[in-house]
Amino acid sequence: MSWWGWLIVGIVLVGAELMTDAAFYLVFAGAAAIVVGLLVVAGLGLPVWAQWVAFSVLAIASMVLFRRKLYDRLRGGSERMQHAAVDALVTVDEDVAPGRRTRVRLQGTQWTAVNVGWESIAAGADARVVEVDGVELRIEGAAPGQDGW
Fold it and tell me: 10 Å Cβ neighbour count for 87?
C-alpha cells in the first residue's frame, strides 16, 4: 500500500475513535497505520506483506502494552484514587444487619448503603463509609465517640 494510504487509514481510525467511544482500541490501530505510513515515506522498502505484518504487530503490541494504562489515566479508573466520601460518617435511620441495604444521607444526597461489617448497626448510630462502588456506599459501624480509625 502507498504511504498516503496508510496515513489516511490511520487518520480515519483515530478520527473514528474521537467520534465514538471505542475504548482506545482504534487509537492504537490508527497510530500503527500512521507509523507504517511514515516508515514507507522514509524510504524503508517494505513489501506489502511486511507492511501488513508491521501494522499488525505495532497495533497489537501497543494495545497490549499501553491501552489499560492510558485508559485508566484518562478515564480516572486508577486504583490509587480514593473517593471523597471514604471515611465520612453517616447516620443510619434504621437497624441494618450485616449484608443488608439502607438509605443514608451524605453531603445533601440520598445514597444506598450496604453494611459490610460483621455487626449490625443500630438505628441512629454512626457508620463509617469504607468504600464507594458506583452509586452505592459500603459502610461499617463506627465506635461511639471515635473521630478516626
Answer: 13
